[in-house]
Amino acid sequence: MINKPVVIISDLEGVIFPEFWIEVATITGIEKLKLTTRDISDYEQLMKMRITTLRENNIKYIDLIEIIKKIEPLEGAKEFINKIREKFQFIILSDTFYEFFMPIAYKLDYPTIFCNSLIIGEDGFIVDYVMRDQKGNGKQRAVRNLKDMGFYVISIGDSYNDTLMFKEADMAFFFNGSEKVMKEFPQYEGFYDYNKLYEKIVEIIEK
Q: Tens digit of pLDDT per residue, the chain (207 long)?
């Protein structure tokens, strides 16, 4: 049995909600916007491409939000989070943006989230973004800091940008991970069912 306070750290997109950018790409028909950190591990490169593509296609921030507001959590995600929160602390640690998440946070009963911020120009286009952690490797540093505070940390994610926090965590799991990323990091068990993941977490902590 784990004799420390436990915190579950989860990625957002792909684990709890569908990928926002893929939903935007589907609605707008812009194929380039389907690319995520599963495809491009360099986040700065990915975001620059997204910002440029949005402007080229005359898509403003308000247009994105109208699409994002219609996105629902993955089936079973809210129930999974609520069960976790009955027993442990739960934090979403994401590379998404507060400006995207807050309009739909009510769909998960307003969980704690650490993410980034967008800069919107006077013309309504996204012009830049600000990372929450300016020192880099924000997910990894967040997990390390929580461990330094005395927490036992379990991380959940689905793609390349989660693997650094996996290495830092006491325990980590893929959820809905792509075959490619899970093949590259076989040391982390993968799940596609919330109930089975929940059972595994409880087993680890309470056995």
A: 888 999 999 999 999 999 999 999 999 999 999 887 767 778 889 999 999 999 999 999 999 999 999 999 999 999 999 999 999 999 999 989 999 999 999 999 999 999 999 999 999 999 999 988 766 677 999 999 999 999 999 999 998 889 999 999 999 999 999 888 899 999 999 999 999 999 999 999 987
Q: Has 123 been annotated as catalytic?
A: no
pTM for the structure as a whole: 0.90
The yes-or-no answer on residue 13 being catalytic is yes
SS3 assignment, position 94: strand
- Catalytic site residue from 11, 158, 162, 168: 11
What's the CA gap between 91 and 88, in Å, rounded?
10
Residue ranges of the chain assigned to CATH 3.40.50.1000: 6-16+73-206
Dist CA 197 CA 59 (whole Å): 38
Question: For domain 6-16+73-206, is the CATH number 3.40.1390.30?
Answer: no
